[in-house]
Amino acid sequence: MKIVSFKTLLATIFIGIPFLIREIMKPDRSIIWICVWIYLIVNGFRCSFSQEAYDADVKKANDTKALYRKIFGRFAPIAPNIPMILLILCAVMVYIFPVTKLLRIITGVVFFLIIAYVLWFWWIVREYKHKQLEPDIKEQNDEK
Q1: 56-92 pLDDT tens trace
Q2: CA angle at residue 73 from 130 to 134, to 5 degrees?
Q3: Between helices 101-143 and 82-96, what is the axis angle to 10°?
Q4: Is residue 29 very low, low, confident or very high in pLDDT (cuts 50, 70, 90)?
């Protein structure tokens, strides 16, 4: 077997497998997380050893980056990561400041904003993809 992506293989072995083992060894294991880690490990090995899978994965990543660049311009690198940034900010606030009613309200509002942003982001990307596909559909209908 030829290794196509050595970095993906290393990440699968040194990140995916230990997290799967840790999840299995926990007394309160979650079947959902076990399934997620198994999926990621299988996908990692598939992309590591199959040229077609690796090329498809790279193409999908490049297409997604290009789409985000068209929609968000120079903010494209951080646009999909804003929910995670806000979650980390909330975690830091809860860790640093004493838990009060005001902090609970602030984190609740931030969590609501995260959910609203994720839904908005999903809707914007879906609408943009749909607008890109419309000319192709019209051309196919014109040819018939």
Answers
A1: 999 999 998 999 999 999 999 999 999 999 999 999 9
A2: 15
A3: 170
A4: confident
What is the spatial distance between Cα 68 and Cα 77, in angstroms, rounded to a whole number?
A: 8
Q: Which pLDDT belongs to residue 134?
A: 64
Rounded-to-integer distance, Cα 41 and Cα 100, Å:
41
Q: Would you state the structure tokens that stand for residue 61, as one six-digit string?
A: 């990543």
Q: Is the pTM of this model over 0.70?
A: no
Count of CA atoms in the C-beta half-sphere (13 A) of 19: 16
Q: Are 20 and 40 in contact (CB under 8 A)?
A: no
pLDDT of amino acid 133:
65
Secondary structure class of 110 (helix, strand, coil): helix
Instruction: Give the ranges where the chain is alpha helix by DSSP (H).
Output: 6-11, 17-25, 31-49, 51-72, 82-96, 101-143
What is residue 13's DSSP assignment? Answer: I
Longest dimension (CA), the chain: 67
Burial environment of residue 79 by CB neighbours within 10 A (0 to 12, 13 to 18, 19 or more): middle
What's the Cα-to-Cα distance from 135 to each of 66, 90, 126, 130, rounded to whole Å? 19, 43, 15, 10
